[in-house]
């Protein structure tokens, strides 16, 4: 039976390219988003999901049941200094840390029962201490926390559930802007790989273009 994958924010940008790629790999794809249009276009599953809303996460899992693969891709990027806009700070943490935590919490028990799980956290080099935490404040803090969640959970989860973070590079999407050098498909490649890792694949790492990068 095909593995079932939930991709958050799979309605556009890198998430949509990951959804398309996983469908091509033969997975049963469910786009988790606030808008169902893209799922119709891709002819795949859809569940209504606002990752900043715990009730929406709970409802989405009640609706879809068990998944084998979770791609925490949804993200928001605010440019204002974080002390000037606490609402944007809160939203960044909700979308890129709390949401992924609650989604993993709901997805993990069935993955453990079935002895198979792949979790991909879409992070950024802007959340990397090694690279100087160079992004706008709230974004960098949230992505660094998402990386920390990845590493810490890789120690809590059994090894049959592989959890990794990744950076897609600078990608031409609504977030990345038109001048970015990479296509969404190029940005999606490492995510598709991490979502379909073989048993011997890596766990608890941070990757870009298939290579480990510094936290
Ligand atoms: N583009 C880059 O250069 C780049 C670089 C490094 C990392 N990333 C990361 O890659 C991921 C995808 O970004 P992208 O470039 O594809 O950006 P994008 O085109 O702006 O897409 C962002 C996605 O996140 C979704 N989203 C935001 N808040 C949400 C919420 N509360 N609930 C559900 N979905 C929500 C959006 O859904 P709506 O359509 O409903 O708003 C959209 O599908 C993000 O995590 C981003 O931080 C991107």
Question: Could you give a short description of this structure?
Answer:
The protein has helices at 13-24, 37-42, 54-64, 86-113, 137-156, 184-195; strands spanning 4-8, 28-33, 45-48, 69-72, 117-122, 161-166, 206-208, 211-212. The chain has 215 residues and is of the alpha/beta class. The chain has a single domain (4-212), classed as Rossmann fold (3-Layer(aba) Sandwich).
- How many domains make up the coordinates? 1
| Helix and strand composition category | alpha/beta
Compute the separation of the termini in Å.
Answer: 36 Å
Annotated CATH architecture = 3-Layer(aba) Sandwich
Provide the spatial order of strands within the biggest beta sheet.
Answer: 3-2-1-4-5-6-7-8
Topology as a string of helices (H) and strands (E) = EHEHEHEHEHEHEE
Bound molecules: NADP nicotinamide-adenine-dinucleotide phosphate
Number of E-type strands: 8
Biggest sheet: strands, sense, closure?
8 strands, mixed
Shape: globular
Cα Rg: 16 Å
Averaged pLDDT: 97
| CATH topology heading | Rossmann fold
Task: Write structural notes for this entry.
The chain has helices at 13-24, 37-42, 54-64, 86-113, 137-156, 184-195; strands at 4-8, 28-33, 45-48, 69-72, 117-122, 161-166, 206-208, 211-212. It is α/β, with parallel strands linked by helices. The protein has a single domain (4-212), classed as NAD(P)-binding Rossmann-like Domain (Rossmann fold, 3-Layer(aba) Sandwich). Strands 3-2-1-4-5-6-7-8 form an eight-stranded mixed beta sheet, sandwiched between helices. Helix 1 (13-24) packs across helix 6. The longest helix has 28 residues, at 86-113. The protein is globular, with a radius of gyration of 16 Å. The protein starts with a strand and ends with a strand. The mean pLDDT is 97. NADP nicotinamide-adenine-dinucleotide phosphate binds next to helix 1.
